[in-house]
Amino acid sequence: MGIPTPHNAAKKGDIAKTVLMPGDPLRAKFIAETYLENPVCFNTVRNMFGYTGTYKGKEISVMGGGMGIPSIGIYSYELFHFYDVDSIIRIGSAGGLSSDIKVRDVVIAMGASTNSNYANQFKLPGTFAPIADYGLLRKAVEVAEERGIKTVVGNVLSSDTFYDDNAEANDLWKKMNVLCVEMEAAGLYMNAARAGKKALCILTISDHIYTGEALPAEERQNTFREMMEIALEL
């Protein structure tokens, strides 16, 4: 397949080597307009907005990835394989599972467990462990420490189901010390591994499944800024 693709109207050279990827395309628009200098929109197909600009003199792109592994699977595959992107940093929200984390904490996904069948396409003779790029992960932790932002590093769950028919599912993942649940990281990490590229997922705990605590809209925006600023520094 050539470019533009059925999902991305960008042409060669329109997208930077590093792409920040929130799930929500409107959050991509917010990041571009708030943090990037001279942002240029390269994609509006399916309203999955993408922008390229500069941050502290370095070219960077930001683009929505949608909800779930099938969606981020398409966008990250095309970025890695057709647009010569080297690194994708997912920034998103997550629901807390572990008793060791609280709402507003920033979680860096060292690994991403999943109930998805996405890895089946690779026909591996065993179970694949989707993990982050260590260089990006290490730098993210360093940036957070410099800024005094609390981070928790560990395993997250990338779930295909937001409404799970198995009422015990969360308890079982929590028992294995999975920190939180989101819906995309594992697919992104698998695509990066297959392409020989880099990926990292940084999450903000927006609600906790067991305590019932949740951030109101305004506080979500302010807390998410910390996660965005860590990602931009990478």
UniProtKB/TrEMBL annotation:
<dbReference type="GO" id="GO:0005829">
    <property type="term" value="C:cytosol"/>
</dbReference>
<dbReference type="GO" id="GO:0042278">
    <property type="term" value="P:purine nucleoside metabolic process"/>
</dbReference>
<dbReference type="GO" id="GO:0004731">
    <property type="term" value="F:purine-nucleoside phosphorylase activity"/>
</dbReference>
<feature type="binding site" description="in other chain">
    <location>
        <position position="27"/>
    </location>
    <ligand>
        <name>phosphate</name>
    </ligand>
</feature>
<feature type="binding site">
    <location>
        <position position="7"/>
    </location>
    <ligand>
        <name>a purine D-ribonucleoside</name>
    </ligand>
</feature>
<dbReference type="InterPro" id="IPR004402">
    <property type="entry name" value="DeoD-type"/>
</dbReference>
<feature type="binding site" description="in other chain">
    <location>
        <begin position="206"/>
        <end position="207"/>
    </location>
    <ligand>
        <name>a purine D-ribonucleoside</name>
    </ligand>
</feature>
<dbReference type="InterPro" id="IPR018016">
    <property type="entry name" value="Nucleoside_phosphorylase_CS"/>
</dbReference>
<comment type="function">
    <text>Catalyzes the reversible phosphorolytic breakdown of the N-glycosidic bond in the beta-(deoxy)ribonucleoside molecules, with the formation of the corresponding free purine bases and pentose-1-phosphate.</text>
</comment>
<dbReference type="GO" id="GO:0006218">
    <property type="term" value="P:uridine catabolic process"/>
</dbReference>
<protein>
    <recommendedName>
        <fullName>Purine nucleoside phosphorylase DeoD-type</fullName>
        <ecNumber>2.4.2.1</ecNumber>
    </recommendedName>
</protein>
<dbReference type="Pfam" id="PF01048">
    <property type="entry name" value="PNP_UDP_1"/>
</dbReference>
<feature type="domain" description="Nucleoside phosphorylase">
    <location>
        <begin position="18"/>
        <end position="228"/>
    </location>
</feature>
<keyword id="KW-0808">Transferase</keyword>
<comment type="similarity">
    <text>Belongs to the PNP/UDP phosphorylase family.</text>
</comment>
<feature type="binding site">
    <location>
        <position position="46"/>
    </location>
    <ligand>
        <name>phosphate</name>
    </ligand>
</feature>
<feature type="site" description="Important for catalytic activity">
    <location>
        <position position="220"/>
    </location>
</feature>
<feature type="binding site" description="in other chain">
    <location>
        <position position="23"/>
    </location>
    <ligand>
        <name>phosphate</name>
    </ligand>
</feature>
<keyword id="KW-0328">Glycosyltransferase</keyword>
<feature type="binding site" description="in other chain">
    <location>
        <begin position="90"/>
        <end position="93"/>
    </location>
    <ligand>
        <name>phosphate</name>
    </ligand>
</feature>
<dbReference type="InterPro" id="IPR035994">
    <property type="entry name" value="Nucleoside_phosphorylase_sf"/>
</dbReference>
<dbReference type="InterPro" id="IPR000845">
    <property type="entry name" value="Nucleoside_phosphorylase_d"/>
</dbReference>
<feature type="binding site" description="in other chain">
    <location>
        <begin position="182"/>
        <end position="184"/>
    </location>
    <ligand>
        <name>a purine D-ribonucleoside</name>
    </ligand>
</feature>
<comment type="subunit">
    <text>Homohexamer; trimer of homodimers.</text>
</comment>
<dbReference type="GO" id="GO:0004850">
    <property type="term" value="F:uridine phosphorylase activity"/>
</dbReference>
<feature type="active site" description="Proton donor">
    <location>
        <position position="207"/>
    </location>
</feature>
